[in-house]
Specification:
Blueprint (H helix, E strand, L loop, with lengths): L14 E6 L9 E4 L1 H14 L4 E7 L13 E14 L18 E11 L5 E2 H4 L3 H10 L2 E2 L3 H9 L2 E4 L44 E8 L2 H5 L7 E8 L2 H10 L7 E7 L11 H18 L1 E2 L4 E4 L1 H13 L1 E2 L3 E2 L1
Parallel strand pairs: 1-3
Antiparallel strand pairs: 1-7, 2-5, 3-4, 4-5, 4-6, 5-8, 9-10, 9-11, 10-13, 12-13, 14-15
Helix pairs in contact: 7-8
């Protein structure tokens, strides 16, 4: 089966709405039903759903390991096939011991997509009747027939993310192109680390600064002299970038936090990609002079260094209109 960004969700594609306890398609590549009633529901749905079909998911859980910002939000959607199987065939082993009687009657998801955090929809706003139908949506799933709702879900900015498959291996690119002195060249007009569909290519970009919270001395294996580790970049979704960096690290005492974004710091996001690149280049050049480059877009810096470079970057570029 071959699908592309332009044809996998057409006007003819069936759309199912359901809830998950969390949103981790990289380890949970399935939608499933529980018990004999659930098995019957799956069989009946397959008679009327296209193959593949879209499953739109919102998050309901209050569990401590779930991002609280996802609670009640439509987190993303999956492209689901009619391939049936047991839940554990389509999920990472970390899930196999949890709730062993739940969602055994499953279908395989082959692709997954997350809505950008800055554009996520509140489930109750899209489905006002959810207060009385939530139990059915959670247990059985609800087929969406309203074309206006489908178009809203399809047009809300999303990115493709990993969908669990036991055959997929994690391969990283170790090659890194840098300029003299650690001023890393800006990337191409994309989000880096994930794919943005062409239809969302005109989204405004934010310059952002992430900070690694934790014992910096321990992380470096030497004294940080009161400085912290920062990541500089630009993105249509800084929070998605933060999440991706966090997921790349083992769980532990170190956490990436967003300390600055253009739109969150009294500036406007960059509607022109060239302006965003110019501002990013300025902040990096400033940090090369006053901070310690740690490779890539990472710097060991004081808060004052970041503040000075941040304002220099925005003062030197007229947002939306090129350099002053």
């Amino acid at each position: 089966m071959t699908t592309s960004e332009t044809d996998f969700w057409t006007d003819e594609t069936s759309v199912l709405f359901t809830s998950f306890w969390g949103w981790t398609p990289e380890t949970w590549g399935t939608v499933g039903w529980s018990g004999d009633r659930g098995k019957t529901r799956r069989a009946n749905l397959l008679k009327g759903l296209t193959d593949p079909f879209i499953t739109v998911c919102y998050v309901t859980s209050n569990k401590t390991y779930i991002d609280p910002k996802l609670k009640g939000m439509i987190a993303g959607f999956m492209l689901v096939t009619h391939e049936t199987g047991d839940r554990d065939e389509f999920t990472h082993p970390i899930h196999h011991a949890r709730d062993p009687d739940q969602w055994r009657h499953s279908l395989r998801a082959v692709r997954a997509f997350s809505y950008l955090p800055e554009y996520r929809l509140r489930a109750q706003d899209v489905f006002p009747e959810l207060s009385r139908t939530a139990r059915h949506v959670s247990a059985m799933g609800e087929v969406i027939a309203d074309s206006a709702v489908i178009n809203l879900l399809r047009q809300t900015p999303w990115i493709e993310v990993a969908a669990y498959s036991p055959a997929i291996m994690d391969v990283s690119n170790a090659n890194e192109e840098v300029t003299a002195g650690g001023a890393v060249r800006p990337g191409p007009d994309n989000e880096g680390g994930y794919s943005v569909p062409p239809r969302f290519g005109k989204l405004a970009r934010d310059l952002y600064v992430l900070k690694l919270e934790g014992n910096t001395n321990a992380y470096l294996g030497r004294s940080a002299e009161g400085r912290a580790i920062y990541k500089i970049g630009l993105s249509a979704s800084p929070d998605m970038r933060r999440q991706l960096f966090q997921k790349s690290m083992p769980r532990g005492a170190f956490q990436w936090v967003t300390v600055r974004t253009s739109s969150g710091s009294g500036f406007s996001a960059f509607n022109c990609f060239a302006d965003a690149v110019a501002a990013e280049s300025i902040i990096k050049k400033q940090l090369v002079e006053c901070a310690e480059w740690l490779g890539g877009e990472f710097y060991l810096a004081n808060e004052d260094d970041i503040e000075t470079a941040w304002h220099a970057a925005h003062a030197s570029v007229h947002i939306g209109g090129g350099k002053v």
